[in-house]
Specification:
165 residues; two-stranded antiparallel sheet; flat
Length: 165
C-alpha cells in the first residue's frame, strides 16, 4: 500500500482509527491491524505520528461501502448515499418537504427564487423518486468535494505560512 498519509486538523489519527475499528468490527489494535493487513506496530506508529495512510482508508471505504468523507472527517452519512437505508432517504425527503412548507430555500423565501431556480425546481419535481435521489446524491457529493477542497487549500496556505516564518 502507498505511504501517502493524511493528517486533518479536526480529526486526529486516533479519530480515524476509532472509526476504522467501528466499521471493521474490531475490539483491539491487534484485531484492527489484522483486519487492515498490517502489523500492530504499524497501527501504533500511525497513532504516535498522528497520521493514517490514505490508501488504507480508501480500501476500507471501498470494501465496506462506508463514506470516505465520514471515515476521514466524521462528517456526513456513515454509508455512501446509494447504500443508505430507506429510512434515511425518507428522512431526507421529509426534510425537503419541511423546507418547502416553511418556505426556506437558501435562506430566502421561496418567492425570491430566480427564474433559473424555479425552472430547476420544476424539473426536479417532475422526476421520479429514484432520479431525485440520484440528483441529491450527486449534489451532496459535489458539496462534500468542495468542502474538502476548501480544507485542503486552507491547510496548504497554513503550511506555506508556517514554512515562510
Amino acid at each position: 500500500m502507498s505511504t501517502d498519509n493524511i493528517n486533518f486538523v479536526y480529526n486526529s489519527a486516533t479519530d480515524v482509527l476509532a472509526r476504522l475499528t467501528i466499521i471493521l468490527g474490531t475490539k483491539t489494535s491487534h484485531e484492527l491491524a489484522d483486519a487492515l493487513g498490517c502489523s500492530p506496530q504499524t497501527v501504533s506508529g500511525w497513532r504516535s505520528r498522528n497520521k493514517v495512510p490514505y490508501s488504507y482508508c480508501v480500501d476500507v471505504a471501498v470494501r465496506t461501502g462506508v463514506s470516505l468523507d465520514w471515515l476521514l472527517t466524521g462528517l456526513g452519512p456513515v454509508r455512501r448515499l446509494a447504500e443508505v437505508s430507506a429510512e434515511y432517504i425518507s428522512n431526507q425527503e421529509s426534510d425537503i418537504q419541511q423546507l418547502q412548507e416553511t418556505h426556506i430555500a437558501y435562506q430566502r423565501p421561496m418567492t425570491e427564487l430566480t427564474e433559473e431556480e424555479k425552472y430547476l425546481l420544476e424539473m426536479f419535481r417532475d422526476l421520479d423518486k429514484d432520479d431525485r435521489r440520484d440528483i441529491q446524491y450527486h449534489l451532496e457529493q459535489k458539496k462534500r468535494f468542495q468542502e474538502l477542497e476548501s480544507r485542503v487549500d486552507s491547510l496548504r496556505k497554513q503550511e506555506q505560512s508556517d514554512s515562510g516564518d
